[in-house]
Amino acid sequence: MSYRNFHITATGRSGLLTTRSVPQRRADMPELLEKIESDLLSLPSQQRAFLADRLLSSLDGEEHLTDIDVAWLAEVENRYEQYKKGLQKGIPGKVVFSEAKEITSR
Predict the structure, then answer these.
(1) Is 47 left (phi over 0), alpha (psi -120 to 50) or beta?
(2) Model-level pTM greater than 0.70?
(3) By three-state DSSP, how is residue 17 classified?
(4) pLDDT higher than 70, residue 20
(5) Where does the pLDDT of residue 2 fall: very low under 50, low under 70, confident under 90, or very high at 90 and above?
(6) Is 2 within 8 Å of 26 (Cβ atoms)?
(7) Rounded Cα gap, residues 46 and 86, in angstroms
(8) Which of 35, 46, 65, 106 is least surrounded by Cβ atoms within 10 Å, i.e. has the fewest?
(9) Which residues contact 83 (CB under 8 A, 6 or more apart)?
(10) So where are the chain's domains?
(11) Where are the beta strands (DSSP E) in the chain?
């Protein structure tokens, strides 16, 4: 497969400028890759953004937590500490799953 590299400079979530060498698609791109690209581009923007983040993270050879992931982990840890100290009551699983089902079925 033949690719030419070009460079992209962008501001990441951390606010830092990053430059990546990105292969540019050539005319001899395999049909399967074209089909995958077409299918992915038809996804809603949130799903494409999630997938793009996962793919870009994979280029470095390891998963990286996003700022949102880090914020959620901190929130989960804080809530658990509050629960252990008796400052926060637990919610029964049946209630949680019932509410989640209601929200996702809208």
Answers:
(1) alpha
(2) no
(3) strand
(4) no
(5) very low
(6) yes
(7) 37
(8) 106
(9) 89, 90
(10) 4-58, 67-104
(11) 4-11, 17-24
Environment class of 22 (CB within 10 Å of its CB; exposed 0-12, middle 13-18, buried 19+): middle
Mean pLDDT of 9-28: 55
CA-to-CA distance for 66 and 91, rounded, in angstroms? 28
Name the pLDDT band for 43 (thresholds 50, 70, 90): very high
CA separation for the pair 95, 49 (Å, rounded): 31
Closest to 96 in 3D by CA, of 85, 106, 104, 84: 104
Residue predicted with more confidence, 76 or 1? 76
Q: Which residues contact 43 (CB under 8 A, 6 or more apart)?
A: 51
